[in-house]
Amino acid sequence: MTSAAPDVRLAATLLREALGDRLLLPGDPGHAAAVRLWNAAVDRAPALLARCVDAEEVALALRVARRCHLPLSVRAGGHDWAGRALRDGGLVLDLTLMRRVDLDAPAEEVTVAGGATAADVLAVTGPHDLVVATGVVRAVGMAGLTLAGGYGPLCGRYGLALDNLLGAEVVLADGRRVTAGPGHDAELHWALRGGGGNFGVVTALRLRTHRLPAALAGMIMFPLDQAAAVLRGYRAVIADAPDELTVMAGFLAGAGGEPLVFVFPTYVGPDPAAGWPWVERLRALGDPVVDQVAPMPYDEVLRMFDGGMVDGNHYLLRTRWLGTLADAAVEALVDAARRITSPYSTLALHHFHGAASRVGAGDTAFGLRADHLLVEVIAVWRPGDDPGRHREWAERTSAALAPHALPGGYPNLLAPAETDRVRLAYGDNWDRLRRAKRRYDPRGVFSAVPTLPPSTPSPPPGPGPG
User: What domains can be seen in the chain, in order of their start residue?
Assistant: First the structure.
């Protein structure tokens, strides 16, 4: 934040007075658990952790950090694989106690506190047959997901999570609290929808809800030797898919440890039964060994992924955007599945189309609005295992997909060092996003999340890595 030396002792004194035992220092009871993330590969040592309960406390913590020259990070859901919620020697603004969810069913919107997860929100909206656009994992924080994008099973019908952000309460770096929306701080509202946690601390989000009593969804899995045919057939299905149908695909470990290729349709039309012909078309891609498709509440759709990402394992992610699933990309994915180094590792393809693709390219900061697939390469290993071969598998897979990929990549998944791809990810929105950064965070306080580097000048346009 400045070149002055951090004054941790003064910051601790000031924050302890306001927060009491909700200020955690190394050695305090609860500190070890509070700095433990889902990805156990992350090993950071923040100097202070402030467990805030409202926007006023967040504002106080920001003012103390500024006065005491402490670098900052913000922990909401804490599901960023790179561990950017924690910062060595810094002050962590921990929002995990801020999980209130207030539903206004007649207005078809819900107000969600900054630390709330998808599970928290669906627990409130579900009894009213209402949903919000989420990712595929219930434990992910809604703020981090929404600010950078939010691919999920409702993408085709309702867009990305960020497309459903009606407004946000934000505490800026100087401690000021503002409400961003179409009618007030509209430029901040634009930047928040895709620009990530680079402009302030979002302490509340106002999200659009959608009526959805049930979805037709579930896992269909096929043997690995059918993977190429299944993926080519999947390509044909998603080319025809209506908005109501969003289909995830990829590779997961089967009961015996060998990877299986999967497709995961989610049909969310007014009549779930209208999705059965699409399910039958997907079933016919091969000889299913698992078939779990059924009508179910949306919360149950996401529960089917609860066991996939286990707290305490070590994770490394790589990502690519594919404009089409070309035969060469199919071959690269199948080869990667055959070479997979861990029964916990996964390849996932997220389907972007429909309502999400009809949002104007400049209407939000999110940079890619053409139909595409988001590929997640998720290397996972147990603590104590040598990480080298798992990392090499992820890097090799990403490199094999690169010749077939679009420029840039999903900023929420890019590695901290991939700043060149970040710039390409935002496309024509990059310069406007940089101006918003200078306007709302001119001192670069929010620099722990490097999707928008705070100090380097904008590079000239030109080609770059995929």
Answer: 8-94 (3.30.43.10), 101-211 (3.30.465.10), 215-404 (3.40.462.20)
